[in-house]
Amino acid sequence: MASSSTLTSKSFLGSSRVDTAFLSSDHLRKLSISTVHISFRSRLPKKLQINAAGSTFGNNFRVTTFGESHGGGVGCIIDGCPPRIPLSESDMQFDLDRRRPGQSRITTPRKETDTCKISSGVSEGFFFVFFFVKNDRLLGRRFMYLYQILIREDFCGMKWDYNEMSVAYRPSHADATYDMKYGVRSVQGGGRSSARETIGRVAAGAVAKKILKLYAGTEVLAYVSQVHKVVLPEGVVDHDSLSLDQIESNIVRCPDPEYAEKMIAAIDAVRVKGDSVGGVVTCIVRNAPRGLGSPVFDKLEAELAKAAMSLPATKGFEFGSGFAGTFLCGSEHNDEFYTNEHGRIRTRTNRSGGIQGGISNGEIINLRIAFKPTSTIGRKQHTVTRDKKETELIARGRHDPCVVPRAVPMVEAMVALVLMDQLMAQYSQSYLFPINSDLQEPLAIPRLEAANASV
């Protein structure tokens, strides 16, 4: 690479002007920076080089997940976690239990405890850096996407479940695209494409939810609002009073008992046929601090969309009025402002979904994520083999007939991670100096004495 220097006669921090008249061509030649050549020789053949990316999320509150299905374990590393946060493994285990398989007849029957262990970063119950979950099913571990090694037999299933999948691609799964990208793939469980990877997200999300609750009283709650053709009507759930107990009152995680039974019946109907259905998860955020998000590329809804759509099986994202808002006129859609009895600016309606101009306005943030039917089903399908021969495939194993009940804590986690990252960005940018008290609200003072605050 080559560099050049430029001299300026402008003063710097009040210094006198620089007299450049004495600088002859010889002087300039001595001052200029010589061309520098730097070369790096790789120790590996080019065909073995891999540029791994995509396993880290966030800028200030950074989460990196690791591990894969049927590997030695899965987990995450959190970088940038505020210190002195009271934390224990039970804070994460609650949400991990909501995510794990084998919860009911409408989820996969695999039995995996998903017991977490904090490996470092906590001293006397405070702070967090790293956590790890040992896989209950240790079938294969991938090394540099090159080969697999059998570690031991699978507790929960037989390795023969994957024999056919090793040569034939499962329709609508990541099998074919992993081969197209890497030229090799993990057959057992799909490797990093498996939903096992979301364990690290859910654990980190539990930490983020705890900090948000301690800091600003922010609550992140998600629930199932649709399974196949059973759609929970808008307005049935009161977002102002919705509680975690209501969501967890049934196995499908729909807060309305009547529609919950209909959803469970819809899943049962396809489960016995070896088929699957999709659905929608609705997520709300109460008491979100105002001012989160940035204009242009880093709008809050854009960050939430990326986070939600990075989850396995997602196919759609809406916030606020969503696509239904296109049927309204501006006079119908606009959220009019008013000042409440406490002197705070509020909106009479919330079609904006708590976000305007890419920035949170303090109203309830609401969004909806669509999940496709589970790709791996127990019915015969047409496909091709890795050597491009057409064939038929019946996928074996135990898979969710509908992913949305277990996706609820995953959605909560990703939303919480975005809010935590944006909260730290807002604090560092807009609250570094005294705020404009006429227009801005002070961020809440953390209530660290609430060591046993509920996640």
From TrEMBL:
Pathway: Metabolic intermediate biosynthesis; chorismate biosynthesis; chorismate from D-erythrose 4-phosphate and phosphoenolpyruvate: step 7/7. This is Chorismate synthase. Catalyzes the last common step of the biosynthesis of aromatic amino acids, produced via the shikimic acid pathway. The lineage of its organism: Eukaryota, Viridiplantae, Streptophyta, Embryophyta, Tracheophyta. GO terms for molecular function: chorismate synthase activity; FMN binding. Reduced FMN (FMNH(2)). Transmembrane segments: none annotated. Keywords: Amino-acid biosynthesis, Aromatic amino acid biosynthesis, Lyase.
